[in-house]
Specification:
The complex is a heterotrimer of chains A (273), B (760) and C (159).
Chain A lengths: L2 E7 L3 H7 L6 E3 L11 E7 L8 E3 L3 E5 L4 H6 L1 H6 L3 H6 L5 H6 L2 H7 L5 H7 L3 E5 L3 E4 H6 L7 E7 L3 E9 L6 E10 L4 E6 L6 E2 L15 H18 L10 H19 L7
Parallel strand pairs in A: 1-3, 2-3
Antiparallel strand pairs in A: 4-5, 5-8, 6-7, 6-8, 9-10, 10-11, 11-12
Chain B lengths: L12 H5 L6 H4 L5 E7 L5 E7 L1 H5 L3 E5 L30 E2 L5 E7 L2 H9 L2 E6 L36 E9 L2 H7 L2 E9 L11 E6 L5 E5 L4 H11 L7 E4 L17 H10 L3 E4 L2 H6 L6 E10 L5 E13 L5 H13 L7 E10 L13 H18 L4 H8 L21 H12 L1 H4 L2 E3 L4 E11 L10 E7 L5 E5 L8 H13 L6 E4 L17 H27 L7 E3 L3 E4 L5 E3 H7 L9 E6 L8 E11 L5 E11 L6 H20 L30 E5 L22 H13 L10 H11 L1
Parallel strand pairs in B: 1-12, 10-11, 14-15, 19-20, 26-27
Antiparallel strand pairs in B: 1-5, 2-4, 2-6, 3-5, 7-15, 8-13, 9-10, 9-12, 13-14, 16-17, 17-25, 18-19, 18-24, 21-22, 22-23, 25-26
Helix pairs in contact in B: 9-10, 10-11, 10-18, 14-15, 15-16, 17-18
Chain C lengths: L1 E6 L2 E6 L6 H7 L18 E4 L2 E4 L12 E3 L5 H14 L8 H14 L5 H7 L11 H23 L1
Parallel strand pairs in C: 1-5
Antiparallel strand pairs in C: 1-2, 3-4, 3-5
Helix pairs in contact in C: 2-5
The chains are: A alpha+beta (273), B alpha+beta (760), C alpha+beta (159).
């Protein structure tokens, strides 16, 4: 059972930061994960008075407050349009609407959970995290870091024109994913392929062999071939493991299939596989 | 008949849909001590030392109990008719711990926080023992799980605690080996089902207090109040007469609550402290230390002749009862007897089994009760046999299935088939799914294949010669009827369907019946709601009691009219003279009943049945398999049931849909896993995935009622049979789609995909 | 610590611990319709409305309700009876234990989606587990309720 000695609804980020420097302190996100543990929290830091629960759009970027609920992100029409429904797809399988009304984007990203659909999705976009002290970091760099004591303020998605796709494989519809895959194809040609729930946390698959070079300019047949080839390549490079839900061997097979499918989907190639 | 076979609303519906506080924990007094149990971290260990001093000093802690504080006579948690077939192998707390989650100590305190704190500081020194985790290695293992000398089997069931054997038996007819040898086609296959959790939404819970007589009162979420009374009387050494059990509304049971999982803990605390106490199982506890399905491995040998006549069935079941023997000797029987009842005219059969102890959570009763496991095996094997013969498996079934008026061969609940429309059920299920067009599969051309599969099922209706239904009905001063029941409505709606039967016998309005139960001090004895018994045997008792009451009403009415009972009739509203004008209203008779009256306007009846007439069912399912990922989607599940007369078509339908969804969960999602230390890994709803509404696909249910003459309204049962078809039907459909035969539940995408890859 | 919030339309003020979950707080304050089905936010039995949105009261500190508007089924009795009639007409309420959380989420859904398809219903309510009914009856009741509400609206328009 989660135990909390003191609950502080902070007035500003500085107060949150100062309180959070103690090891026993803990910033509250949506609490869906936190409350499952047996943690003894000295000071629970609540950011919910800081108006960090909104999504702002500017010319250059989307600025998603850390306290924005997964549900708000899922139903945001601007994000939906921008990502062609991929963000919604990455969220809608997470337990249920009530759960997503509680869980926050900040909590999901800060946790860097292996099973995170959200992290996988953001990795495939030109996205950043803004930390109170640490400033703005690329999502990939943040994902690699260990949890620190800084305060996550918001997530930023740069509005670089991009075609995205998100696919997850689950044993049942609202279970944790067995594997996740997100693809972002920027108009200028940059392609991001993220694979998560390996079951370790999501990583970007680097195109060391240039298989996807010029992907957006390819015709459908070429795209399909490149998607297939990159799927094979990803299966060779992405490290997978076993857990209750699936073996490493099955996951590696899925890397191939989901990467191929997501590339084809984002690339606008017809046919479901 | 006005109400039987009508979709009446459940009598308690309004309370339930408006969220009234009608469940155990809603009713518990605020000052109850909170009771929790310290659980063993080891699969097999002896407590060398246990020190509770520090725990006792935690402010708010009232009582900490260890194995030194409990009675030493063994008992069983199994809610079964006495003498129970389950061995007496438990103590409330034992020095020997037999699975991860076994009870080490009981802590009671004023607040949950205090209790949690105390649990953490009880000091236990364990002597960790080698554990038997694999049920294949249990029998005659050198590690003995129940070495105690006071292990007691009241009824010989072939068990031997020194051999880790809970039960063992073999029965046969004809020479199976010889007949199989002569068969043109034979298959031998082994199928494995796991220890699925019932996962009812309301976990196990009970609260207890002493009444003004000093008797132990137990309010419990149980399916078996009268058995709990006896179990607690023995476990606590106070005798059943000192125990009263009350059942409020229950948040689901599915057999889980046919075992007295939680009651004993608050009960002993109340006895020791004289204070009210309550225990509410967490979901974690409900997952790791409760009463799930028996894991079974069923080996089936089938043989058929050239034309496709089934000639012989040989079944061997290895059942894992876990650390204790609850329902061990009985569930296993259904793994043979029910599938054996599905087919006719075969020449020989053999059914043998071993039920073994292991260092895993004790199993219990779960909807289907062994039949689910056996039917998965036999109904899969039938398809495998038909495949060998290049025969449509539905055609094979049509040729061999059980028919009304025929003889049962291996079914133990009846010698002949009193009522059965299994042939019609199959015919209709075939039509509903479009079998002839769709069998075996259609490639959709996008990497996905749709296949169809079918299966038959049966169950019983009460345990023949054992289960007892009870009912008592009285006429109130205002001409209303109160129907007292000992059967336990756990959401299924038995209070309602029994009232429907009562209303029809009494020819009164449905709303004029008050259904009430259960309180062991005042309700008529009933074995409880399990074994698909309530509609059938309690229904009989209700009809009998109401018929009796009619006679009494006639008697009193006649005397008011100064006539003899033979000269009058009762039509539900008035007692009237058969040849004459005299009449008296029910209202007047009811009032008379309360003034200067010597005729009891109350009747009780008990019913049991020598036969257990099976309900039957056929199902056909269409699945879609993704050849690249192995994912299986249910497109359409068509099921047709013969439950005799559906007393309430709505409730029968929902029972069926619910049972199918649970079966679909078992077939596709609910993957029980243990680690090497014997810890159950599916210890939450996060790790044990029961189906959501997005997982069950489309379920369509129809009825093909036969009429069961032994029941006053022609009814049989519905509660359990409905879980039996999904495992085999879906496994058969997956095979037909992609040629992968899954013989171990659940059918995960990984297993399917690995099967596909292995083939190519 | 002290919290103040609106519970079913009434302003309440109460002492609570910083780690008290809203679920336990609500049950202690007479809202027994709110049930606990698990410890892992998976069952939806504890669903209540916070500022009109469905949330899991098992995953919410009571402290976080401070200043907010919380509604449980106790505060929607009339609506519960109205919709409950449709649920009961299918026999789909069954054991009833999941009903309050389910019904609260149905209300939340109907506020958010005016004319949901069956697929949208299944998606919106996916977080509400039910072990008795197999869900089909619940869906039938919602679809029939929607029809009834539509007809009611049409009638009101006609007048």
């Amino acid at each position: 059972m989660l135990k909390i000695k003191e609950y502080v609804k902070v007035k500003d980020l500085e107060e949150a930061y100062q309180l959070n420097q103690k090891r026993t302190s803990c910033v509250l996100g949506g609490m869906v994960w936190l409350k499952m543990g047996n943690r003894n929290v000295g000071t629970a830091i609540d950011l919910s008075g800081l108006h960090l629960d909104t999504i702002e759009e500017t010319e250059e970027e989307f600025r998603i407050g850390a306290m924005t609920s997964l549900r708000d992100l899922e139903t945001d029409a601007r994000i939906h349009a921008w990502t062609g429904g991929a963000v919604k797809e990455s969220l809608k399988h997470i337990v249920g609407v009530q759960f997503r009304n509680c869980a926050t984007v900040g909590g999901s990203i800060f946790g860097r959970f292996g099973f995170s659909d959200v992290l996988t999705m953001f990795l495939a976009m030109d996205s950043y995290v803004e930390l109170y002290k640490g400033g703005i970091l690329p999502m990939e760099e943040f994902a690699r870091q260990k949890r620190g004591r800084d305060i996550l303020v918001r997530i930023i998605i740069k509005k670089v024109p991009v075609k995205t796709a998100y696919i997850s494989q689950r044993n049942s519809k609202t279970d944790f994913p067995v594997l996740t895959c997100a693809v972002g194809i920027e108009a200028q040609g940059k392609v991001r392929v993220a694979v998560g729930a390996r079951p370790a946390k999501a990583v970007l698959v680097k195109d060391e062999k240039g298989i996807l070079r010029g992907f957006s300019q390819m015709d459908d047949q070429q795209k399909a071939a490149a998607a297939e080839a990159f799927g094979e390549y990803a299966a060779q490079t992405v490290v997978t493991g076993s857990n209750m839900r699936a073996s490493a061997q099955y996951r590696t097979h899925l890397v191939k299939v989901l990467v191929k499918r997501a590339l084809k989907q984002a690339g606008g190639v017809d046919s479901g596989n | 008949m006005k109400y039987v076979n009508q979709p009446m609303q459940k009598k308690d519906a309004k309370a339930l849909v408006t969220g009234q506080p009608v469940y155990t924990d809603d009713l518990a007094p605020k000052d109850c001590l909170i009771v929790k149990v310290l659980r063993s971290p080891h699969a097999h260990a002896l407590i060398e030392e246990i020190n509770t001093d520090a725990a006792m000093k935690v402010p708010g802690i009232v009582c900490v109990l260890t194995y030194k504080d409990v009675p030493q006579e063994r008992f069983t948690f199994a809610g079964q008719t006495y003498p129970e077939l389950s061995p007496y192998d438990r103590l409330i707390l034992d020095r020997r711990l037999r699975f991860v989650g076994d009870a080490v100590a009981i802590v009671a305190g004023e607040t949950e926080k205090a209790v949690d704190k105390a649990l953490k500081i009880i000091k236990v020194k364990y002597q960790v023992l080698e554990a038997v985790l694999d049920f294949h290695q249990a029998k005659d293992n050198t590690v003995v799980i129940h070495p105690e000398d006071n292990w007691l089997a009241q009824v010989p069931v072939g068990g031997d605690n020194k051999r880790n054997l809970c039960a063992s038996r073999s029965e046969s007819k004809g020479d199976v080996d010889q007949v199989l040898k002569e068969c043109r086609y034979t298959v031998e296959r082994t199928y494995h089902t796991k220890a699925n959790q019932q996962a009812m939404m309301e976990t196990f819970r009970a609260y207890t207090y002493l009444d003004h007589f000093g008797r132990l009162n137990v309010v419990a979420s149980t399916q078996v109040p009268f058995h709990v009374r006896r179990i607690l009387g023995r476990a606590l050494g106070i005798g059943a007469s000192n125990v009263r059990v009350i059942k409020p509304r229950i948040g689901g049971g599915f057999g889980a609550k046919q075992t007295s999982v939680a009651e004993v803990y608050p009960a002993i605390v109340t006895l020791k402290t004289k204070r009210p106490a309550k225990m509410v199982f967490s979901r974690y506890e409900s997952q790791i230390c409760s009463s799930p399905r028996h894991e079974m491995e069923v080996t089936v040998r089938l043989g058929a002749d050239e034309e496709g006549h089934l000639k012989a069935i040989d079944i061997y079941t290895l059942s894992n009862t876990g650390a204790f023997g609850e329902h061990g000797p009985t569930t296993v029987g259904l793994s043979g007897h029910k599938p054996l009842g599905l087919y006719r005219d075969y020449e020989a059969y053999r059914f043998s089994y071993d039920v073994v102890y292991t260092n895993r959570m004790s199993a219990g009763a779960y909807r289907g009760y062994g039949a689910t496991q056996g039917i998965f095996a036999v109904e899969s094997a039938i398809d495998e046999l038909a495949e060998l013969m290049h025969m449509d498996p539905v055609k094979f079934r049509e040729m061999n299935l059980t028919k009304e008026g025929g003889k049962f061969i291996g079914y133990d609940g009846s010698t002949w088939v009193t009522s059965c429309t299994l042939d019609q059920c199959l015919e209709r299920a075939k039509e509903m799914i479009g079998w002839d067009e769709k069998y075996p599969a259609r490639d959709l051309g996008n990497g996905k294949v749709r296949g169809v599969g079918a299966a038959l099922a049966m169950q019983g209706s009460a345990i023949a010669g054992v289960d007892v239904g009870g009912a008592s009905v009285k006429l109130g001063e205002d001409a209303s009827y109160t129907l007292s029941l000992g059967a336990t409505d756990m959401g299924t709606g038995c209070d309602t369907i029994l009232s429907q039967m009562a209303a029809d016998v009494l020819e009164t309005d449905f709303d004029n019946i008050i259904a009430w139960g259960v309180d062991t001090d005042v309700s008529p004895y009933d074995s409880g709601s399990y074994a698909s018994a309530t509609t059938y045997v309690t229904g009989m008792a209700v009809a009998r009691a109401c018929q009796d009451l009619r006679e009494k009403i006639k008697e009193l009415g006649a005397s008011m009219l100064e006539l003899s009972p033979e000269e009058v009739e009762f039509d539900g509203r008035e007692v009237y003279q058969l040849d004459g004008e005299k009449k008296v209203s029910l209202e007047a008779i009811a009032v008379k009943g309360t003034c200067g009256n010597n005729t009891s306007l109350q009747a009780s009846a008990t019913a049991s049945s020598k036969i257990s007439p099976p309900p039957f069912m056929a199902a056909a399912v269409e699945v879609e398999v993704d050849k690249e990922t192995g994912s299986v989607e249910i497109i359409d599940y068509a099921a047709v049931v013969d439950c005799g007369t559906p007393i309430n078509p709505n409730l029968a339908r929902v029972q069926t849909e619910g049972g199918l969804a649970q079966g679909i969960g078992m077939a596709l999602y609910e993957d029980i896993q243990y680690n090497a230390k014997g810890q159950m890994r599916n210890n939450s709803f996060m790790q044990y995935k029961i189906p959501t509404r997005q997982d069950v696909g489309k379920i369509r249910v129809e009825f093909a009622p036969s009429y069961e003459e032994s029941h006053p309204f022609g009814a049989k049962s519905i509660g359990e049979i409905v879980i039996n078809t999904p495992c085999p039907a879906i496994a058969n459909a997956v095979y037909n789609a992609v040629g992968v035969r899954i013989r171990e539940m659940p059918i995960t995408p990984e297993k399917v995909l690995m099967g596909i890859m292995g083939d190519h | 610590m002290e919290i103040k919030f609106w519970l079913n339309g009434k302003k309440i003020q109460a002492e609570t611990e910083p780690d008290t979950l809203l679920l336990d707080f609500l049950r202690e304050h007479g809202c027994c319709s709110v049930k606990r089905g698990c410890e892992t936010a998976n069952s939806g039995l504890c669903t209540v409305l916070m500022e009109d949105r469905p949330v899991l009261s098992c995953s919410m500190l009571a402290a976080r309700a401070d200043g907010k508007k919380i509604v449980t089924l106790e505060g929607m009795q009339k609506e519960a009876e109205e919709f409950g009639e449709f649920l009961a007409n299918e026999g789909a309420e069954q054991c009833g234990f999941c009903n309050p959380g389910f019904i609260m989420n149905v209300f939340a859904m109907l506020k958010e989606l005016s004319d949901p398809t069956e697929e949208e219903i299944n998606e919106y309510l996916a977080g509400n587990l039910c072990r008795c009914s197999g869900f089909m009856g619940q869906t039938r009741s919602i679809l029939k309720f929607l029809e009834y509400k539509k007809a009611e609206k049409e009638e009101a328009k006609g007048q």
